[in-house]
Write a structure and sequence with these properties.
Blueprint: H1 4-18, E1 22-25, E2 32-35, E3 38-40, E4 50-52, E5 56-63, E6 67-70, H2 72-80, E7 85-91, H3 106-109, E8 113-117, E9 123-125, E10 131-133, E11 142-143, E12 151-154
Parallel strand pairs: 5-7
Antiparallel strand pairs: 1-2, 2-5, 3-4, 6-12, 7-8, 9-10, 11-12
């Protein structure tokens, strides 16, 4: 499964770049820093006319079970920066072939992606900044074991 996730992640990155987005690998609390537009007027040496439109912190998750797991750092990043955080869920539950035998492409992945803004994620924090998942129905978000390192959410 570790090789499936990175392969899908690279396809998501390539698809974003193909759409003209600037994508930088971060992999600390989120996978990519994505900047939609960079504007420069009067040449690149004129710094007063250069600005970037606000970017997003994109975390890519692949699911084959219907669950999406965030590490504590990813959940904390989502809670702290919900306006800039985007979860990209690639749902492979209904993929008709052997997931591990596919040479994944942008065309395979793009229709399976769902982008969820950070404000729509059921992630919150306590005063001590321990990450908790909060849903209207408490049983729909669970932590695996007493010392689980990841938080689990049903697929969106």
């Amino acid at each position: 499964m570790r090789q499936l996730g990175p392969a899908v992640q690279e396809c998501v990155k390539a698809a974003m770049e193909r759409r003209g987005l600037s994508v930088e690998d971060v992999d600390h609390g989120y996978d990519f820093s994505v900047t939609p537009v960079e504007v420069t007027e009067d040449g690149p040496e004129e710094l007063s006319a250069h600005f970037e439109v606000v970017g997003y912190k994109v975390e890519v998750k692949t699911t084959t079970t219907g669950e999406v797991r965030l590490t504590p750092l990813q959940a904390a990043t989502s809670a702290a920066e919900s306006g800039a955080f985007v979860l990209c869920v690639v749902d492979l539950r209904n993929y008709p072939g052997d997931l591990y035998e596919v040479d994944w492409t942008q065309e395979d992945i793009s229709p399976l992606c769902k982008l969820v803004p950070g404000q729509g994620l059921p992630v919150g924090s306590t005063i001590s900044y321990r990450v908790l998942l909060t849903y209207c129905v408490p049983s729909s978000a669970v932590s695996r074991g007493r010392t689980a390192r990841r938080r689990v959410m049903p697929a969106i």
